[in-house]
Amino acid sequence: MHIIHVCVHVKKDTIEDFKQATMHNARNSVCEAGVVRFDVIQQQDDPARFVLVEVYKTPEDQLLHKETGHYQTWRDTVADMMEEPRKGIQYTNVYPDNENW
Known about the structure:
Layout: E1 2-9, H1 15-29, E2 35-42, E3 49-56, H2 59-65, H3 69-78, E4 87-92
Antiparallel strand pairs: 1-3, 1-4, 2-3
C-alpha cells in the first residue's frame, strides 16, 4: 500500500467551500481502481485544519489519481483557499497487512 496523509490548513472564511470541493474529489477518488481509501477528516479544535488520508495500491496509482479531472479541478479550486501550502506525508503500511485491506 502507498499511504499519504495530506495536511491542509485553509483560510477560516473558506472552510465550507473547501469541504464541498474536497468531498466532490473524495467521492470520485474512491471510484478509481487503484484507490483503497480516501478519507477526509477535520480537526475538532481548529476546524480550518484537515487531513486527507489517501491509500493507494501502488505509488503509480497516486500518479494516475493526479491525472484525473476531478483531482485537477479540486487542486485548482482550493489553491487560493490555503492558509499555507498543503503538506503530504508518506507512510508505510504496518497493519493490517496489504493482503487484508
